[in-house]
User: Fold these one by one.
Assistant:
Number 1:
Amino acid sequence: MTALAAAPLPPLGAPQWAIDMENRITQRMEWGFRVHDIHLHNSEVAQREQSEWNLSRFLNASCTHDGEPLAPLPLPLPRIAVPAIPPPPVPGTAANHPPPWAPPAIVVPAADPAFPANKGALRAMSGPALDTLLQSYRLPGVNVGTVADRRTRFAHHIGVTL
């Protein structure tokens, strides 16, 4: 028997530096995929929202008289917040895997209850009522400009020509 054959075998498995590198790479990839999935979901939400809004805007563009009913725009759809990717694991510790996630169903909400029923109601809206609608639909310029300016801004958003 030679001295080489009598030497103890090294333990099976990878060295710690390789395990640490694998953990860093795995964590970065898994979190990167999660962020990508959330961005993809949010883009599907935005497409659905625009589709619903464009249909209502198309219908509202044909309203010519004050008494004609307006097609209400659904409220904006909620988006999923994109998490920050955690720092890489400390050497010797396990990777920080993202929690399980399934995209929520995209459900179109109803319109704001204060949405004007027709063009005449839109023309008669006061400043505070317009500000509530501007805020509900996440439009800029709440409490900015005259009531006529805010009314025109909201009318443009819903597809109505005043």
Number 2:
Amino acid sequence: MTLIDFPTFLWAGNPPGSRYNEDMMSEGLFQGYFLERIMRHIFTGPSTALGDDSRATHSCNASLHDMTTVEAEHIAYACVQASFHLFIARFAISNKNKWAKANSEFNNQAFYYNIINFIRECEDRDWAQGLLKWWNK
């Protein structure tokens, strides 16, 4: 999978993907506005998704699973969830009648593993380390 294969909502910016730069494609990748909110919602709770303090009445997923740092797998999981939510919107206005692991041309499982491999095997190690540092700030 190459940079050109990733959906633009994975790039930084508000609205999602607005900072996508064809000349510097890895800049802002996996730092998207929508993706960041999905990540917060999943791991620290729904009330934190828009930057508010947690109002949870029980432990968040990060605490429940002793998650102290963000890794490539967490980013990939959030990317799949973000993609799923966008798919639901497309699904609602389509003629499809069921959800599948691979929908039309899009395979969620391949997407997940491609993101992990892209981050872990990236030739630009400074970029990959910077990405993880950005998520763990």
Number 3:
Amino acid sequence: MAHQALTDSAEIKLDASGKPANILVTGAADGMGLYAIQLAKLGNTHVTATCAAQHIELVKSLGADEVVDCISPDGVALKSPSGKKYDIVIHCGPPTPWSTFEPNLGSNAKIFDLNPTPSAIKTYAIKKLTFSKKQLIPVLLSAKAENLEFLVKLVKEGKLKTVIDSKYSLSKAEEAWAKNVDAMAIGKIILEP
């Protein structure tokens, strides 16, 4: 979903040929967030990320230009340490009210919500109906073979790393799901036969 949000929705060119953009990735230490950072850095972007303090070094190692502890005052407020306004937000984190995002957004900013809630969908509708330049856009997965092939190519080239949190046998799928739902995974959870 990170690839879809960045390329299809936000129109970031992953060959760095596009216009510069300031991007915020929330929930940056989860599976989607870690991919979003790496993919965004292939574009012409400055990436700020939020995550828990114990994951800051991991997030930096994958390319984030700035990382904010998500429970610090600046992290809760989603403020960039450099004071930059965001052009694009890839929202992988927990539900966050519009009022938290709004003061940190550039004049035409777009928030792409990878975990949309009914509240996010309501905000999307309100922003559309009022012709707001700043928008929140729910992203729903639209699987395309060419996107997956592109990601596999990046992995083979060493340009995209997959962080594996844990592995479970298929018979323990319920435990794996619970860990995922509780947002306790850092990276991906693998199910094995």
Number 4:
Amino acid sequence: MGCASSRDEEDAGNSKKICKPKPWKHSEAITRAQLNKMREEFWDTAPHYGGTKGTYNDNILLFSEIWDALRAASEADLSLAQAVIDSAGVIVQNADLTVCYDEKGAKYELPKYVLSEPINLIRDS
């Protein structure tokens, strides 16, 4: 799988190209419905997994905006995901988006199951 970037190499600065996570296997085979339920449960409780509330340079930026950007990026193709991440000011630690930071240094961790499907996903017949 390739990476995508919305900027030229020399203009990238601190921006890191993002990539889909490497193939992974869930502890047991799961269905698409189970995967979707896990994803919804994560996004419903995401603020408990990191982030911060605060003001940045007189502009109020709540941690929910970063979580919203991370969710949008996780559900988009790579080039759109890169644009979302860049425009939200998200600092990517791991290229697969599993660890990111906001501009104030608050950490955001995403499980692989919100970023890609497991190799042992049970396909609908």
